[in-house]
Amino acid sequence: MPPMIGQISLFPYNFAPAGWMFCEGQLLPIPQNEVLFQLLGTTYGGDGEETFGLPDLTAAAPPNLHYCISLFGEFGTSTYTYNAIIGETMVAIPSLVARNLLQAAGQSMLNNMYLLLSAYMGTRFGGDATHFSLPDLRSKAPSKCQYLIAVQGDPPNNRARVALFWVRYFFCHINRQLIRCWLAMARNFRYRRIRRSTI
Q: Which residues contact 4 (CB under 8 A, 6 or more apart)?
């Protein structure tokens, strides 16, 4: 699943994965990162002509973990649906949007409009028989960032995903076994031909 450009995720590495960069307030050149610049602008620094800044989340990251921002990926718009697990929560820049993501601001949601999320979350953050509430993470979000939560998407225990994994696994495993068998037969056939020609 490709990330959204500008998505911020927490990684347990001492390096940034390919296509990601540490959120340490560094300046980036605009020409090489035009789409990300369109999202961030000069919110986190830079002159807006040649450079722009990334958010500095070093203090917000737990020990030995780093917040990284995606430099490439899908471009979120109001019509774009992020391929998420329902309830997935992420730190995001304010301009990051997708149809199925909402700011986690404690708002009340109708059960019948978000059946899966309601079933999994219950009323642990508030609600009643017809409503449930999202967590209010506004005070927990790093400076100039927000927490977004996926209100629609795949259930966390999606059996279809698990079934697809096993289908792929067995397909690959069986293919490997067939290839090994075919190679063994080819070697055996070649060995017999060589042996016959030497007799």
A: 70, 73, 74, 75, 76, 80, 82, 96, 98
**High-pLDDT (> 90) share of the chain, %:** 30
- Whether 85 and 107 map to the same domain: the answer is yes
Instruction: Give the integer Cα–Cα distance in Å for 48 and 56.
Output: 17
* Count of residues making up the chain: 199
Fill in the DSSP letter of residue 113. G
Inter-residue contact 138 to 146 (CB < 8 Å) = yes
Closest CA to 6 of 136, 106, 101: 101
Kindly state whether residues 173 and 146 are assigned to the same domain. no
How many domains are there within the chain?
A: 2
**21 and 110 share a domain?**
yes
φ, ψ at 148 (rounded to 5°): -110, 145
Residue 160 has a pLDDT of 52
Nearest to 52 by CA among 31, 70, 37: 37
- Three-state DSSP at 53 gives strand
Kindly report which listed range (23-27, 36-40, 49-53, 175-179) carries the lowest average pLDDT score.
175-179
- pTM for the model: 0.66
- Give CA–CA dist 132/59, Å, rounded: 32
**165 pLDDT tier (thresholds 50, 70, 90):** very low
C-alpha dihedral (22, 25, 30, 34), degrees to nearest 10? 60
